[in-house]
Amino acid sequence: MPSVSCPDCGAFIQVPQGARSGDLLECPNCAGHALEIREDAGRWSATLVHRVSCPACEELITLPAEVKPGDTVRCCDHIYRLTLEYGAFAAEA
C-alpha cells in the first residue's frame, strides 16, 4: 500500500485504497492541519493544508493555501479573524 510523508513531522501515513488526488488525510501526530495528497505517475505526495474549527459549531473549515494571520473566514453566519500561534491557526470572534 502506498504511503506519504507528513511534511511537518515526517511520519509516514498510508494512502487508503480508492484515494484520489485532492483528498485530505489526517496526520496522527499533527494538529491543526491535514494533508492534501496528490498522485502523479503512480507516486503520491502530500502538502500541508491548514484547518480551523468554527467556534460556534465546531465544523472544520479548510483554509486556502495563501491564508495569513488576520484574514477572515465565515461560518454559521459569523465572521471570524484568523490567528496563528505555535504553527496552527485559530478562528476568533
Brief sketch in words of this structure:
With 93 residues, the chain is mainly β. It is 0% helix and 51% strand. It has two domains: 3-48; 52-92, no CATH class.
Describe this structure in words.
The chain has two domains: 3-48; 52-92, no CATH class. The protein has no helices and nine strands. The chain has strands spanning 3-5, 12-14, 24-25, 33-40, 43-53, 60-62, 72-75, 78-85, 88-92.
Helix content: under 10%
Largest sheet, spatial ordering of strands: 3-4-5-6
**Broad shape:** elongated
Order of helix and strand elements from N to C terminus: EEEEEEEEE
Largest sheet: 4 strands, antiparallel
Strand-residue fraction? over 45%
Keywords:
2 domains; 9 strands; three-stranded antiparallel sheet; mainly beta; single chain; about 90 residues; elongated; four-stranded antiparallel sheet
